[in-house]
């Protein structure tokens, strides 16, 4: 049986464990599927007060830009796989970088850390560390 990629699964945001420079969402679930050089991401984010979005991405780990749907911050993202536990992403809107992120899955496979910086033009407008825990026990 092939080993399941450490990123594959559903992850729920844990605000109490996170350190963000701006208020975090009320609820944030990421469902990630990695197989070989392919990655599929679905993010369901509830900001509260009726503001919610679903972001969907189908990409490869090759540093090339792929379409992002549903995001107010980005219309494209480029991913690279730094190692088995680490993914780097650079998101852009109309060709201008808007987000840089690094995701790391803990060795035990139960927590994922997202370090990110948000840009408006060349100015950094937000940064932080968002912590996620794996939902369910199956991998």
Describe this structure in words.
With 139 residues, the protein is mostly beta strands. The protein has one domain: Lipocalin, CATH 2.40.128. 0% of the residues lie in helices and 65% in strands. The protein contains no helices and eleven strands. Strands 1-3-4-5-6-7-8-9-10-11 form a ten-stranded antiparallel β-barrel. A hairpin with a 2-residue loop joins strand 10 (111-120) and strand 11 (123-134). The radius of gyration is 14 Å and the shape is globular.
CATH names the topology as Lipocalin
Q: Given the helix and strand composition, which structural class is it?
A: mainly beta
> Beta-strand percentage?
over 45%
Distance between the ends: 13 Å
Order of helices and strands: EEEEEEEEEEE
The whole-angstrom Rg is 14 Å
CATH architecture: Beta Barrel
Mean pLDDT: 95
Query: What percent of residues adopt helix (DSSP H or I)?
Result: under 10%
Question: Which terms summarize this structure?
Answer:
mainly beta
Q: Can you lay out the helices and strands and say which pair or pack?
A:
Layout: E1 9-13, E2 19-20, E3 27-35, E4 38-48, E5 51-60, E6 65-69, E7 76-83, E8 86-93, E9 96-105, E10 111-120, E11 123-134
Antiparallel strand pairs: 1-3, 1-11, 2-11, 3-4, 4-5, 5-6, 6-7, 7-8, 8-9, 9-10, 10-11
Brief write-up:
This protein has no helices and 11 strands. The protein is mostly beta strands and 139 residues long.
């Amino acid at each position: 049986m092939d080993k399941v990629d450490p990123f594959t699964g559903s992850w729920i945001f844990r605000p109490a464990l996170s350190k963000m420079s701006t208020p975090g969402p009320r609820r944030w679930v990421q469902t990630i599927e990695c197989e070989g050089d392919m990655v599929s991401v679905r993010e369901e984010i509830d900001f509260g007060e009726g503001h919610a979005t679903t972001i969907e991405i189908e990409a490869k780990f090759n540093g090339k830009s792929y379409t992002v749907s549903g995001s107010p911050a980005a219309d494209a993202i480029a991913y690279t796989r730094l190692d088995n536990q680490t993914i780097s992403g650079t998101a852009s809107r109309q060709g201008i970088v808007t987000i840089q992120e690094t995701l790391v899955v803990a060795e035990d496979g139960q927590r994922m850390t997202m370090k990110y910086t948000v840009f408006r033009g060349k100015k950094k407008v937000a940064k932080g560390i968002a912590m996620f825990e794996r939902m369910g026990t199956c991998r």
